[in-house]
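The aim of this short unit is practical: by the end, you should be able to scan a pair of folded records and say something sensible about each. We start with the first protein, listed as its amino acid sequence and then its structure tokens.
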Amino acid sequence: MQGNGFKVGAVIFFLALSAWYLFPSFRGLSLNNRLEGMSQEERVDYERDNFSTIESIKEKSLNLGLDLQGGMHITMEVGLRELISELAGERRDEAFDEVLAAADARSEAENVSLIDAFVDEFENRDPDASLSRYFRSEEITRRSSNSEVTQYLQVQGADAIERAMQVIRNRVDRFGVTEPSIQTQGSRRIVVELPGIDDPERVRALLKGTARLGFHLMADPGELNSSLQRIISYYEVDIASPADSLDVGEEEINEEAESDTSFDVSQLLAETEDLDDVGNPLLDVLIPAGQGTVVFGEVAAQDTAAFDALMADPEVQAMLPRDIELRYDANPSSGSGPEYFPVLAVNMNIELSGDAITDARADFDPQTNQPLVDMEMNSEGARIWSRLTGANVGKNVAIVLDGVVYSYPTVIGQISGGRSQITGLASQEESEDIVTVLKSGALPAPVEIVEERTVGPSLGVVARKAGFTSLMVGLTIVVLFMIVYYRAGGMVADMALIINIIFIMGILAGFNATLTLPGIAGIVLTIGMAVDANVLIFERIREEQSTGKTLKASIDGGYSKALSAIIDANITTFFVGLILYSFGVGPIQGFAVTLMAGILASLFSAIVFTRIIFDYAVIGRRLSVNFG
């Protein structure tokens, strides 16, 4: 055994290290079995009392992929059409929009790059036209050629995809998903795999949010009330004779609304016993607000589409106060009945953008204990915020995130120091999601979910059982074959095989890798490859014994002569695994990871561990080794 002290120490060290990394996984398995045996109420109480311990175990346990524990598979498409429109800005015209729409349709139908299709459509309609008339930047001037503009758009498009990937990755990481897979697909799609997700709706909102935050002034309540009267009058119909039922004509309503901005529509509506008798399609879906408020009214959740369609009428839009648009409140009004969303009148102009926000954190109001988001601004943002609040004391300022109003506080006094809050949130989760979106950065262009698949936990259980069964069947066959063919030598090889599997799992757990179904296939393949090295060694030992050498000399010669072939075969296979991992995605990467881990573990167990056993058996003469 002389000279094997270092080898023995190495084996013990790596076994102990593998056990250390695998211990949380065994604890997690035991915890899951324990939780499954509890009732729902007992489980909730146990998880609340042991929250930190459970989270620590989950964090350190061996990660399972989407196919083994369930989760979400999402394909998202970056809105390059919106990006091109945004790059053109106010220089767009009707011809530009027509070309872009045709290019978008062609890109979808022919699966070609939207930018290439846009340039082709543009030049086909007018070969002498210049793209530089629509785009301006540091690189693009009025004299830039179409090819230079095309290159500029391609760079912007590729950069948008890359930035969208990074933003989505940051959001997913902050959300706490273990080992997500985020890959590009084609020219404008991103594929996201999120194992272990149990709240799909929250994930959808988190991934799609563009993080476009803005601080807006709001409409003058008097002007808004007058606009509301005119719009209601516009939608009155003759069938229900609204003028008779209200004892007031359309002209009188308009005249009174224009002459008296304090005119209250709620008083007008109170004169009728049943709103349905008014015969007004707008009042069928809208509960108008009273005077003195920036709220236009309330709309039931199921009626938002109908309300949007009514308000999209150009004549109705013209009746709204100048530069005012209607936005929904993020949270419906509280109550036991149907959900009603307040409709708010917000100025289109952004007084302060979200770029000024340097930090955001979820917190609670010390007085009401309601969740909120604290935000801090940079020096320029703090200066603008101080001026904005100082000039609008007593008025409302809307905080709009991705087109939805999260709060519209009344300015009590000038606010210096660059601090602001988003209040009126429904839950702590919502405040945390807003912080995640703000701190992860804004998406360069809108993204849409074009495909979504949810893998249920039950399918994951079936996959785990199938994978475990295949692993055990493969292991059993190899173990029996080695014992039958190589007898005592085969038993040593089987011991090395068990050690090899422990090392593989320890490597995966130590590097926080993810075990997937293809990964299990990689382990099954590695089992066969692991004994391949022992087969080469044993056959070399047999050849040495056939020449009349002693067992000790035969073992020395067998290991020495088989070593080069073993190293060559495993290194080339390892490089193949490296290539698969570098260029593959999802399941291919999972297979490559376990393949590479298995090669390293099998080399160590075949060359080091089995040699220790043979040296112990032959030199110590404590075991009779027969290679058949």
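Turning to the second protein, read its sequence before its tokens, just as you did above.
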Amino acid sequence: MKGEVLIGIDAGTSVIKAVAFDLSGREVAAAHRRNHYHNLANGGVEQEMNRTWHDTIAVVREVVESVGPERVSALGVTGQGDGTWLIDNDDQPIHDGWLWLDARATEEAREITNSQHIDEIYRTTGAGVNVCQMRTHLSWMKKHAAGLLERAAVAFHCKDWLYLKLTGIRATDPTEGVISFGDFRHGNYAETVFEALNLGHLRHLMPDIVDGAEMTHGLTSEAARAVGLPTGLPVALGYVDVLCTALGAGLHDSEAMPGFSVLGSTGMHMRFAPDPESVQLNPDLTGYVMAFPGQARAQMQTNMAATLNIDWIVGIAKQMLLSQGFSVSAEKLLSDFDDKLLSARLGRAIYHPYIAKAGERGPFIEPTARASLTNLDQSTDWFDLVRSVYDGLVLATRDCYSAMGEIPGEVRLCGGGTRSAALRKLLASALNRPVRTVDQEEAGAAGAVMIAGIATGLFADAAAATKSWVLPLLRDAEMPDPTLVRSYDCLFEAYKESRTNLPPVWAAQTALRESLP
């Protein structure tokens, strides 16, 4: 393969980035640009599609100028998952893109979940229903925005839109093409799912499923001029960002059979399945199954909010201090939390970390779920409360792994939350498993580039890519604390029992919120 550098594009929820890697997997250049989206009164969350493309041009061009265009051998592109990005017959946006944070289709999600066809839908797609999926969004549009669907030619996800702009090809990948409408065992659309969802008349909106590990398309002349690269340069359509992150952080390991958690804004918890037959579907019909290149699968449960809960408690602390004339940075507060967490008292409050407005989707589906604090008394102090938020995150992680069968023997980690040494210790103890981070800051972009590397011959397959680029970067394991393990075993039972009894409370409180001015 010619060239010394591959560039990964990762269009996330918060940041759009381009990252250049050399052929050994070492990061050699990166550029970031803050993402922009807006919240609507009806629960919608939307992002301007053309602005997303122009921000992508900017970060890729910056990286190309840093490494030199002649050194670049391929691009790989990934991006935030779920959502719906509609284009017309001229490949132009007909509306802003709907993000995975979009919560307006709550009722449609409930209708699908309660339909007589839900078992067939779940057993085929391997994906539970939530408010942010394309199938749910299209169901909402069908009832409330039929004009959008009449004008639409193709329904994309974020990375698919960028791939169109880079290559001129309308396509999606074997992960997002399957989640809403496909068969996870074969990686193709399933016509029975369209019919079961009563969306057969929208089948024409689905782009072809293209496996970026098997084929690439060339950079168009227009895109090439925009980013400063040669026309025809190979571009690989990566899988959705969470799968690329899992690939870039070491989940694809048939020897260790690890778990993998991303503790970012949202929480993703995964187990490695060497083939579709090894997947253990959840009796509660939740979670996702996503394809790796080849036969392996990642089985997932997802929390709508992970570090968003920490952001919330940090924000409360900043408000309290500011009201007394003190200005403290989030970084300083997080450092203070880390110093004091392990000495704070476990169980003086029980926190359920459902802070996202879209509710929860793993390991149960409930759009009205909201965060709660229980078990407080007058002895509960500030750091007990902070500790309960962190404990809530690690117990939610255990809840998700427990829904997928036995917790894997080792769990690998990435995401901003894993920078906290205290959180890593708590997580190892709550799971009673060693946890390991990977020395790869940009695992999502790395995974997209690894897929491009498979397609262009740098790697024979995903296992070879993992062995070359990821396993050397795994850090030493953080081991469980035996005393904490016993305490978390007790606390988990209380955590799970209380959350299973909360749905009627959430429903009543949702009605209350809607009735208040």
